[in-house]
Specification:
By secondary structure, the chain is mostly helical. It is 71% helix and 0% strand. It folds into 2 domains: 89 residues, RNA polymerase sigma factor, region 2, helix turn helix motif (Rna Polymerase Sigma Factor, Chain: A); 80 residues, Orthogonal Bundle (Arc Repressor Mutant, subunit A).
Length: 188
């Protein structure tokens, strides 16, 4: 759990970055590089690809940092932006295998299940979700909308959007585990 001192340090760090302080930018990069690199490395085909995705993600972080509201964790916000950079990278490149992982910080699902799913397989699992839950998941995890934006778009509260996302994650974990146990034939 983050302490008040940690929150103040992060606020100072973010403000320094927004004010174009190179030292603050370097500190932010060094602080979050290891975790974000591991996430990129998990899905990239090479170290060079992981670094390319990560650098693109951090460019996105630094250009959007002025929009961070300190409403949630800075690490989660950065993770989401780096993830979206990864999704953009694979969307732009003509790769045959595309991943749509459920964010892994709240999931005990085995990582091999995530690695075994092709994009089409994941989409077919998402299609099995109830309509409203599927829409919220897609808007949040793929399109990058916030819960407030999703709420306005779908005419629901941001709390309802969060519930649908949580529900989608739970159902997808169950479906992913069923699929990986039944077929055992995925390669990835």
């Amino acid at each position: 759990m983050a302490t008040q001192k940690d929150n103040n340090n992060e606020r100072e760090l973010v403000e320094g970055c927004v004010n174009n302080d190179r030292r603050s930018q370097e500190l932010l990069y060094r602080k979050f590089f290891p975790k974000m690199y591991r996430m990129c490395q998990r899905y990239a085909n090479s170290e060079e690809e992981a670094v390319e995705i990560l650098n693109s993600g951090f460019l996105r972080v630094f250009t959007k940092l002025h929009t961070f509201q300190f409403a949630g964790s800075l690490e989660g916000w950065i993770r989401r932006l780096v993830f979206h950079s990864m999704a953009d990278y694979y969307r732009k490149s003509d790769k045959k295998v595309r991943f749509l992982p459920v964010e892994d910080w709240d999931a005990p699902t085995s990582t091999s299940a995530l690695h075994q799913l092709y994009f089409e397989d994941m989409v077919s699992l998402i299609d099995k979700l109830p309509k409203a839950t599927r829409e919220v998941f897609w808007l949040y995890a793929v399109d990058g909308y916030t819960h407030v934006e999703i709420g306005k778009r779908l005419g629901i509260s941001d709390g309802t959007s969060k519930w649908h996302l949580s529900n989608a994650r739970k159902k997808l974990k169950v479906l992913m585990n069923k699929e990986s146990n039944h077929s055992g034939q995925y390669t990835g």
